[in-house]
C-alpha cells in the first residue's frame, strides 16, 4: 500500500477516536464524576495530538494541491477544502489554548466543542467522498 493511503487510514482511525472522545468528554462534563471527566480529557488530548500529527503528514502528502491553490487561487472544488482547513486550524488553536486552562464549564471549551462538531461533520463528508479511492487502496 502506498504511503499516502497508510497515512489516510491512520488519519481515519485517529479522527474517530478524537471525535468520539471529544463528544464523551462533553457529555461527561455534565455529570458529577470529575475523575471520569478527567480520564476522557486525557484520552481526548492524546488522540487529538495524534490526529494533529497525522494531519500534518496528510498535508505534506498533498502539498502539491496546496501549491496549486496558492498559485491559482480558489476554485469551485477547492472551496470546501479551504473551509475544512480553516475549521481544522480553529479547532487546533482553541484546543491548544484550552491546554493551559481549567476546561470545566468554560466558554472557550464550549467554542472548541462547537468547532469540533463542525470539523467532525466536514471530516465525515471528506472521508465519504474518498471511500472508492480508499477501498481501492486496500486491494493493492
Write up this protein.
The chain has 6 helices and no strands. It has helices at 3-28, 34-61, 63-72, 78-99, 107-129, 131-139. The longest helix has 28 residues, at 34-61.
Q: Which terms summarize this structure?
A:
140 residues; mainly alpha; 6 helices; globular
Overall structural domain count: 1
Tell me the fraction of residues in β-strands, as a range.
Answer: under 5%
Amino- and carboxy-terminal Cα gap: 6 Å
H/E series? HHHHHH
- The proportion of residues forming helix, as a percent range, comes to over 70%
Number of helices, where a helix is a run of at least 4 consecutive DSSP H or I residues: 6
Mean of pLDDT: 89
Gross geometry: globular
* Radius of gyration, taken over Cα atoms and rounded to an integer in Å: 16 Å
User: What composes the largest sheet?
Assistant: none
Amino acid at each position: 500500500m502506498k504511503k499516502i493511503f497508510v497515512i489516510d487510514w491512520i488519519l481515519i482511525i485517529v479522527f474517530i477516536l478524537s471525535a468520539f472522545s471529544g463528544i464523551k468528554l462533553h457529555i461527561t462534563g455534565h455529570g458529577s464524576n470529575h475523575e471520569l471527566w478527567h480520564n476522557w480529557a486525557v484520552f481526548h488530548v492524546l488522540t487529538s495530538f495524534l490526529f494533529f500529527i497525522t494531519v500534518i503528514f496528510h498535508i505534506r502528502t498533498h502539498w502539491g494541491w496546496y501549491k496549486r491553490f496558492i498559485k491559482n487561487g480558489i476554485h469551485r472544488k477547492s472551496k470546501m477544502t479551504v473551509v475544512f482547513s480553516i475549521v481544522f486550524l480553529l479547532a487546533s488553536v482553541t484546543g491548544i489554548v484550552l491546554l493551559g486552562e481549567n476546561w470545566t464549564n468554560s466558554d472557550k471549551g464550549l467554542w472548541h466543542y462547537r468547532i469540533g462538531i463542525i470539523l467532525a461533520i466536514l471530516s465525515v463528508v471528506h472521508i465519504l467522498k474518498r471511500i472508492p479511492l480508499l477501498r481501492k487502496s486496500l486491494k493493492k
